Every structure is written in C-alpha cells, then in structure tokens.
Amino acid sequence: MNYRERITIEPGRRSGKPCVRNLRITVSDVLGYLAAGMTQEEILADFPDLTAEDIRACLAFAADRERLLFSPAAA
Question: What is the pTM of this model?
Fold first, then answer.
C-alpha cells in the first residue's frame, strides 16, 4: 500500500506528528486504539472522518518506519 497520499506531516499540526489526511488524528492515535483492542469497526464508528483505507495506511506507515529503523543501512 502506498500510504504517502494519506499520511501527512506538517510542522504546525499536532507538533509535526504524522497525521491521517491532514486531519488532527495521528498515526500513533490509530495504532494506539488498535493496540488497546479496538476493532477497525469501532474506530470507524468513533471517528467518522476515517476510512478503512486510512487505518491500513497507518499500519503500512508503521511497518515502513520499522523496516527503515532496523535496516542494515541504518546501522
């Protein structure tokens, strides 16, 4: 998945944290909800501006960041 069209980073929004589509919902917010046990359906019900694609983009962003953090080139 190409998350780059959905995940935005702006210095003045949420202290420069990665956000979903210029909303004030951060990637870490979404990941935290998932880690706490919320289902995708519960997140979408609580945040009607989000889509299932947005949640997948958050997961893809986190996976890519993890991959970059621990790649041999980063060592």
Answer: 0.86
Q: What's the angle, vertex CA 55, arms to CA 51 and CA 56, rounded to 5?
A: 115
- Quick check: 74 pLDDT over 70? no
Q: Is the domain defined by 3-70 classed in CATH 1.10.10.10? A: yes
Q: Phi and psi of 19, rounded to 5°?
A: -120, 165
- Mapped onto helix, strand or coil, the DSSP state of residue 15 is helix
Checking phi first, is residue 35 left (phi over 0); if not, alpha (psi -120 to 50) or beta? Answer: alpha
